[in-house]
Design a protein that fits this description.
11 helices; alpha/beta; TIM Barrel; 38% helix; binds ligand PBG; eight-stranded parallel beta barrel
């Protein structure tokens, strides 16, 4: 028997009924707010393609972290800009780097936040690639030790979770080993396991000044056409010791998030990346969309697909709207 016995509209009649049977309930509990740390003090420069997002010196990072914690957001992820870039991105592992100093400052100020750090070389290398270069090639194995050193410097500064985003093979194992050797066995690894070579990172590259100076990232980041390969990347990172795995970008890859969620019983994160954010902001500024409804629908979709941890530049707005 179907209609008239079955009427799905019965449960959509009022907000109380809809709320009672809602399958996906978003909250601030899974949100991570990305921030860009730069050298100096009292620096706060807005990223032109990302309204409301700033490059900030450690003292300013702390101020915004207080606001973030006050909004009930549990975590931030820090990206760093160096004083000087060089061939091997040596400032990535400097104890005096903007990320390392920011973590220390957050800890000193006793701001109650989980601090994640992005582990990569592209912001620190003169060529803008995520590994070291020889004869125009991005070398895999020689990059691993540098990434592990960067991760160790973040742990020493007080990071809770390190998040390698470079897509070199074997980096999770190299970082896990390095952390364990230095008694940081309790520092977790969130790996950008399925990171696609995406045009959706455009505005981020302005924010992090990390655009490759030649070529592109196709030899290490994943081909957007591949979903099964993402499952293999995730399996490898889990074998190497990843605690949380991430799919990135989020919206154009909801199918990948769903497949990863289905296959693996570990926390799944998704990165709602810079262009996903900038497109919404631009359309909202033009008055073409209802920003609040669009953003809450986006966050709901990413969670519905299977991500319980969501990195998003919208985090502060979402927290305000959910209050
Ligand atoms: C560094 C890194 C990138 C992003 C996060 N980590 C850029 C890239 O790979 O080019 C993108 C984040 C965003 O677009 O918001 N490897």
């Amino acid at each position: 028997m179907t209609f008239p016995a079955h009427r799905p509209r019965r449960l959509r009649r009022t907000e109380a009924l809809r709320g009672l049977v809602r399958e996906t309930r978003i909250s601030t509990a899974g949100l991570v707010y990305p921030m860009f740390a730069c050298p100096g003090s009292k620096v706060r420069t807005e990223v032109s393609s990302m309204p409301g997002i700033f490059q900030q010196s450690p003292d300013q990072i702390v101020e915004e972290c207080r606001e973030v914690a006050g909004l009930g957001i549990p975590a931030v992820i820090l990206f760093g800009l160096p004083e000087k870039k060089d061939e091997t991105g040596s400032e990535a592992a400097s104890p005096k780097g903007a990320v390392q100093l920011s973590i220390q400052a957050i800890r000193k100020a006793k701001v109650d936040l989980l601090v994640l750090t992005d582990v990569c070389l592209c912001e620190y290398t003169s060529h803008g690639h995520c590994g070291v270069i020889k004869d125009g090639e991005v070398l895999n194995d020689p990059s691993l030790a540098l990434l592990a050193e960067a991760a160790l410097s973040h742990a020493r500064a007080g990071a809770d979770i390190v998040a390698p985003s470079d897509m070199m093979d074997g980096r999770v194992a190299a970082i896990r080993r390095k952390l364990d050797e230095n008694k940081f066995q309790d520092i977790a690894i969130l790996s950008y396991a399925a990171k696609y070579c995406s045009a959706f990172y455009g505005p981020f590259r302005e924010a992090a000044q990390s655009a490759p100076q030649f070529g592109d990232r196709r030899s290490y980041q994943m081909d957007p056409a591949n979903a099964r390969e993402a499952l293999r990347e995730v399996a490898l990172d889990l074998e190497e010791g990843a605690d949380i795995i991430m799919v990135k970008p989020a919206l154009p890859y909801l199918d990948v998030i769903a497949r990863v969620r289905d296959r693996f019983d570990v926390p799944v994160a998704a990165y709602n990346v810079s262009a996903e954010f900038s497109m919404v902001k631009a359309a909202a500024q033009k008055g073409w969309i209802d920003e609040q409804r669009i953003v809450l629908e986006i966050i709901t979709s990413i969670q519905r697909a299977g991500a319980s941890v969501i990195l998003t530049y919208h985090a502060k707005d979402v927290a305000r709207w959910l209050k």
